[in-house]
Amino acid sequence: MPTPVFLTVDTEFAWRHHAAGRDSDEIYARSLEPAGVGLSYQLAELARHSLKACFFVDPMPALVYGLAPVRRMVETILAAGQEIQLHLHPNWTAARRGTGASITAASSSTTIAWPSRSTCWCARPICWSKPARPSRSRFAQAAMPPMTTR
Averaged in consecutive runs of 10 residues, what is the pLDDT profile of the chain (150 residues)? Predict the structure, then answer.
C-alpha cells in the first residue's frame, strides 16, 4: 500500500544574505537557486515525476526589496502548476535595505497583497486536507485534523 506524503517547501530569502548587505538579485540567487538545486531544479524534478508540492512563500522581504522578487517566486511556482501558501518571518518588518540592520516596525508602511491566483485562505494550508482514504497512522491523524470552514 502506498504511503501518502505531503511535499512542502519553505521558499524564502535567507536572512543571513540580507544581514551581509547583499542586493535582492544576489539574495534571490543564493536563497532560491543555490548550487543548481534550488527552486528551478525542484520544480523540474516535481514535473518530471508528476508530483505536486505546496510551496510556503515568505512575502515579508517585499517590505525591504519591493514586490518584484516575491512576484518572481510566486509566478515561477504557479507557472509550474504547484500550490502556494503563506509563510512568514516577521523579523523582516524591522529590516532596512543595504545594511543588514533593522529599523522600527512602525516606520514600515508597505502593504503586501497576496496574489489573487493563490489557493483559498483557510485555518490551515489547503494541502493539509484529508486524503480520500483515511490513514490508520496516529501521526497522520494528528497531523491532519478535520478541516473547518469560517
Answer: 91 94 95 95 97 96 95 97 95 78 41 41 36 45 44
| Rounded (to 5) percent helix, strand, coil in the chain | 40, 10, 50
- The amino acid at residue 42 is Q
Burial class (CB in 10 A: 0-12, 13-18, 19+), 146: exposed
Burial class (CB in 10 A: 0-12, 13-18, 19+), 14: middle
> What is the distance between the alpha carbons of residues 41 and 47, in angstroms, rounded to a whole number?
10
DSSP class of 134: P
Q: What is the pTM of this model?
A: 0.67
